[in-house]
Amino acid sequence: xLFSLVxxxxxxxxxxxxxxxSELRRDIIDWLFHAVxxxxxxxxxxxSVSHPGTAAPLVAIxxxxxxxxxxxxxxxxxxxxxxxxxxxxxPTYVRGKLRDLLxxxxxxxxxxxxxxxxxxxxxxxxxxxxxxEAAGLAGGAHVLGTxxxxxxxxxxxxxxxxxxxxxxxxxxxxxRLVWPSAALAALVIEALIRGFAIYATRTSLNHIxxxxxxxxxxxxxxxxxxxxxxxxxxxxxxxxxxxxxxE
Length: 247
Description:
Elements: H1 5-19, H2 22-34, H3 40-48, H4 57-86, H5 93-134, H6 138-167, H7 175-202, H8 206-209, H9 213-239
Helix pairs in contact: 1-3, 1-4, 4-5, 4-9, 5-6, 6-7, 7-9
């Protein structure tokens, strides 16, 4: 799961390179990697990403197809983990792989939606800042901007988890069981990311592991995020009635 994240993001960057103008594509990519502390992930994606605009069409298709297949490994890991949580048998290989590919497309759509929410949050923060400065409340503008940024991040994370906990489980899960776990996991993830960013700026593993320190730091963050994701799924499964545990 940890190493499938790079092909997933490389695939998204490659598709954006095909369908979006350069300026908008650059804004989305900068926003996407800004959410992760450090430059390790961006460097890995830059080395893995294909550039369809500069390659032969056949080479571009093969490269994107390879990234799609590799990215589906991340979705397979999540799907299998959820199956273990709910203690139910899995589907056939073909059916599972098709579902993984659909989940890759869903993840790309969620990233674009998250970018849109981020843009709206920035616009609201800028408008609030302008109103506060016009009213002579410079400090209030900073507080308002921080609150809007936090609310936007929480909303995006909540919506993403809501989709994951509703679609990925191997059985139908009621919404009343999903949203509390999604809300709690979103709060913990948002706190973890911001706390980890502070930790990463004040602590470095480079003096212990050398150039691999940044990689280990990034993998630690992904491991913690995956743990929170699975704990949220465990809460849903624990609250689900036994008679509802049928695929």
